[in-house]
Amino acid sequence: MELRTAASPKDVKHYTTDRLREEFLIQDLFQAGTIKTIYSHIDRIIVGSAVPTKPLELTAGEEIRAKYFLERREIGIINIGGKGSVTVDGTVYELSYKDGLYIGMGSEKIVFSSENEAEPAKFYFNSAPAHTTYPTVLIKPENCVNVELGSLEGSNHRVITKYILPGQVESCQLVMGMTSLKPGSVWNTMPCHTHDRRMEVYLYFEMPEDALVFHYMGEPTETRHIVMRNEEAVIAPSWSIHSGSGTQAYTFIWGMVGENQDFDDMDGVQMKDIK
């Protein structure tokens, strides 16, 4: 498990491009036959992936000092690859493209598998510390809360699909979902905001090989950018904006952990104040 420490906004404003990418960008997530995990000290989130060319079991490792991965944690999983399954303590959950799964604290044995190992599933997950157990739920995007926002004129016509949130799929602190931009739109989350009560991670995908996204972060008056490509993730501290503009339409998965789960608890930034 790779470890990432927290960063002060006072320090980040002095980072070089390489240092900024080293601290916040997550690359090479989806490696065949491998589970990859990144532990961030920012709200103790674990970001990870599993690409099973054979069954892969999620184990705790040394870093979290637990008997099993979900001894004191919960996890949200979304499949962005071929058909696959997640077996939770003997119960099999089938996940097609963009299907999700929430697994509550206390589940001991988690195994990832692909239906066709030549076209493996790509399981992306976020995990947060938990204080109680909520039921495991298979999540179909067509059954989720969907919100259409923006406009083509504003280059931000998009659909937000909310997978894990209060009232739909209960969790201790994890909130998770997906935003899909319509063709011709490239901007997400603009006007931007911060939310000091929780951090966020974005995974950008459905991008051609030659496409990229400029992901904007930093304090609203001290913005920085990270150039991102397909299937790369980025960590956004609670004090940072998290917005992006791509060379064409794309999709991203957002995951939030922290003090609250109120999706609309945002501190908006006026366009005139961004620097």
Automatic annotation (TrEMBL):
Record InterPro entries: KduI (IPR007045), KduI/IolB_isomerase (IPR021120), KduI_N (IPR027449), RmlC-like_jellyroll (IPR014710), RmlC_Cupin_sf (IPR011051)
Free-text remark on how the cofactor is bound: Binds 1 zinc ion per subunit.
GO biological process: D-galacturonate catabolic process; D-glucuronate catabolic process; pectin catabolic process
GO MF annotation, one: zinc ion binding
Enzyme category, top tier: isomerase
Pfam family, one: KduI
E.C. number: 5.3.1.17
Catalysed reaction equations from the record: 5-dehydro-4-deoxy-D-glucuronate = 3-deoxy-D-glycero-2,5-hexodiulosonate
Keyword field: Isomerase, Metal-binding, Zinc
Highest rank taxon of the organism: Bacteria
Binding annotation for Zn(2+): 193, 195, 200, 242
Pathways involved: Glycan metabolism; pectin degradation; 2-dehydro-3-deoxy-D-gluconate from pectin: step 4/5
Cofactor: Zn(2+)
Keyword Magnesium: no
Family statement drawn from the similarity comment of this UniProt entry: Belongs to the KduI family.
HAMAP family for the chain: KduI (MF_00687)
Function: Catalyzes the isomerization of 5-dehydro-4-deoxy-D-glucuronate to 3-deoxy-D-glycero-2,5-hexodiulosonate.
Protein known as: 4-deoxy-L-threo-5-hexosulose-uronate ketol-isomerase
Species of origin: Anaeromicropila populeti
